Amino acid sequence: MQLRDALDDFKRHEGHDTHFPGERRTTTGRFSGFTPADGDGRLVHVDRDGGPRDFGSPLTGRNGLDTSRLGVRRDGDLLWFDDCETVSQSYAGDTTLVVTEHRLPDDAGGETLTQYDLTLGRAHVTHVERENPEEHEDADERENPEEHEDADAETLVGFLGFGPDGRDTGVAQLRHADAVELYHDAEHDYVASATGFDAARGCVPADFARLLDADPVERPLAEEAGRREEASLSGDLLCELPFEDGTATLVTLLTDATRTDREAALDRLDDVVAEYDGAEALKRAARERAPRTPDDLPRRDAVAADLRVVGMLSAPTGLRIAGPEFDPYYAHSGGYGYTWFRDDAEISRFLLRADRQFDLGLDDWHARSAESYCETQLADGTWPHRVWPRNRTLAPGWANSHLAVGGDTDFSEYQADQTASVVAFLADALPELDDDLADRTTGTLADALDGLDRTVESDGLPVACQNAWEDATGRFAHTAATFLEAYAAVAAADGDLPESAADLPDRAAEQADRVYEALDDLWVPERDIYGYRLVAETDGDDSPDRLEPGDVDPRCDSGSLALASAHLAYARVSEVDDRRLDRLVSHVRTVVDELHRDPAESSVRGLARYEGDDWRARSQDDEKIWTVSTAWGAFACANLAALLDDRGDPRAEEFAATARDLLGLVLPGGVLCPDGALLPEQVFDDGTPDSATPLGWPHALRTTTLALLDQRDASVEEPAAVPEE
Fold first, then answer.
1. What distances in angstroms separate CA 548 from CA 328, 461, 478, 519, one per listed residue?
2. Exposed / middle / buried, residue 578 (Cβ in 10 Å: 0-12, 13-18, 19+)
């Protein structure tokens, strides 16, 4: 997204109730992108109107399409698909092939055109088929023979706005016999058609006067006198592709010219155009690239969708972006197109657990994750705030104080739970890794334990640091939960560690006991919950009542639901006493009840992030519903049900039932996933999805919860149909 696009969106949505102006939303539409079979690829969003846009720059370093519009020209009239009705949009089965149906207005024949979009490595194919083209042509001849004789040939029209190297200036176009090349420096992008081009011209960008005008800019802009050469020095291309036998195919290809020369790029274009010019060829290629999902899984549709999402958000390194970057100018957020080690390691562990239960064949995924965590560990045994997934290098962040050189280490700008999440995955994954990677992982774990130990205070709780939501500082219940789970996971890895690391499990078990005992300091007897945090200092205190250092913040926080899985992990290496179990039961029950929201404005319901959360509330007074919090609630209840069931406690069924209820909200067809495709991060009370879409974390939570319930023979029913508003 370039600044011109952001300013244009700002003009269109300033003051909107649920849209934040200046963003590049993905809350509608579908993604087609990377699958493990590609190795290197793109993340392409196809909006409801059919326009493809690239979101894969953090994954590959190639920017590609910033904006686009598709349409048809019939008898000289141009009809953009965004001005037509979108009849439907869906995935073809478990694949990343996006199928979109457009219906032209009645006065334009009322015809339905079907669009197929598939990303094939660095290439993306958009194939459009007319509905019974011969029948329509015959009818046109019979009804208007004279008009038909003089009519212009029907063409598919594409307006494509490229930003090679992330630039919207200093871009040039080069015309080849069968393709157009757009480039700035290293990134060279190409466009070709299976039927050639009837026309292809550059479009001048909006000048300063238009950018400053109050009205939005309608693109593409017409040619202007005196600006002719700018059409060749532009990333905007308007092209027309003739239909042949009722079909037209547009192919784009992103390349790095330092690795792929022009001849090789044009040859690749020719190959893609020749091999994938047709719906059946695209369906076959999509099926070949889709992750294999066993047919007998409970809610197989959800598992397949989750693997599709996590795969598309992944770089070849195995690291994942949290979600597509919808706010590239950080006007309303801190960005999403990075790898956070918290999110990524949690996703890795969720997939590992689901793979063991469902036999998903994800060994390569686990190995890539483990290798990347070993590669990115810092000298002090911890991990940085966030990195670029494409090359594992340090990315911009605000929680890297422990990287500073000189002086005392300041943990107030550090997120200790990220390191703990990586430790828990690596310890769990050891049995799945080959000997060399297992040895390397063991060394990484030893250093990581040193890093964790340095961030545990004498009372047994982690130091004051930033929380998982990155909006407060303190000593959080969630952070403590991740430490308890990390230490417990290493303690349980006794039989998987070599003799040289024989001391690690005992060290970890001792630390797990310390954290377990220290959790009592977070207990809030007035509410029968573990509080949000111990307040470390009053500066920046965001609690409803002013608190003093050492006070327990008594708010409910969905992050504290991590205590359930942490105690189930701890129970593998030590005893969860009856008093703690009763407190845990009360805590999970109360947090789920207090954070549950069922607004009257729509059918949506689910869990808020924490009490008093006002982030991205826009015109809404109450907290928004978060899919990750709702899925986390389901996972926590399933873990607590397992812990209770292991002790023969009849309360297990209550929590298994709550887990199924909350999980149903985020399953395909549930009120938070009504179209069955992508989970947004947040939802407004009126049902409008918001923020990063899809978010990888709730997708992985969904599958691991299904796996845990299946392991415990707790069947999951189809969610109730979403009522029409």
1. 37, 18, 20, 19
2. exposed
Model pTM score: 0.95
Q: What is the three-class DSSP state of 713? A: coil
Of 183, 148, 151, 156, which Cα lies nearest the Cα of 69? Answer: 156
Q: How far apart are CA 56 and CA 253, in angstroms?
A: 13
Alpha-carbon distance of 324 to 18, in angstroms, equals 19
**Cα–Cα distance, 352 to 346 (Å, whole number):** 10
User: pLDDT tens across 428-480, in order?
Assistant: 999 999 999 999 999 999 999 999 999 999 999 999 999 999 999 999 999 99
Least Cα distance to 376 among 332, 329, 430, 319 occurs for: 319
Spatial neighbors of 367 by CB under 8 A, at least 6 apart, are: 318, 432, 433, 434, 437
Dist CA 132 CA 111 (whole Å): 9
Which tokens belong to 42? 């793109």
Sequence-separated (6 or more) residues with CB below 8 Å from residue 545: none
One-letter identity of residue 517: E
**Residue spans of the chain under pLDDT 50:** 136, 138-142, 145-152, 725
Angle at 77 between CA 72 and CA 80, to 5 degrees: 40
pLDDT in tens, 275-314: 999 999 999 999 999 888 999 999 999 999 999 999 999 9
| Selection from 199, 180, 177 nearest residue 188 by Cα | 180
Which residue, 20, 25, 17, 21, is CA-closest to 8? 21
Three-state DSSP at 300 gives: helix
Q: Residue holding tokens 């969708």?
A: 305
Distance CA 187, CA 165 (A): 6
For residue 541, the Cα-to-chain-centroid distance in whole angstroms is 30
Pairing relation of β-strands 523-524 and 529-530?
antiparallel
* Per-residue DSSP letter, 323: S
Nearest in space to 23 (alpha carbons), one of 56, 55, 58, 57:
55
Helix orientation angle between 363-376 and 435-454, rounded to the nearest 10 degrees = 50
643 contacts 567 by C-beta, under 8 angstroms: yes
Which SS3 state, helix, strand or coil, does residue 704 take? helix
State the Cα–Cα distance between residues 622 and 611, nearest whole angstrom. 9
- C-alpha neighbours within 13 Å on the C-beta side of residue 226: 1
Tokens 């956070």 found at: 340
Cβ neighbours of 307 (radius 10 Å): 25
Q: How far apart are CA 432 and CA 159, in angstroms?
A: 48
Closest CA to 355 of 716, 709, 703: 703
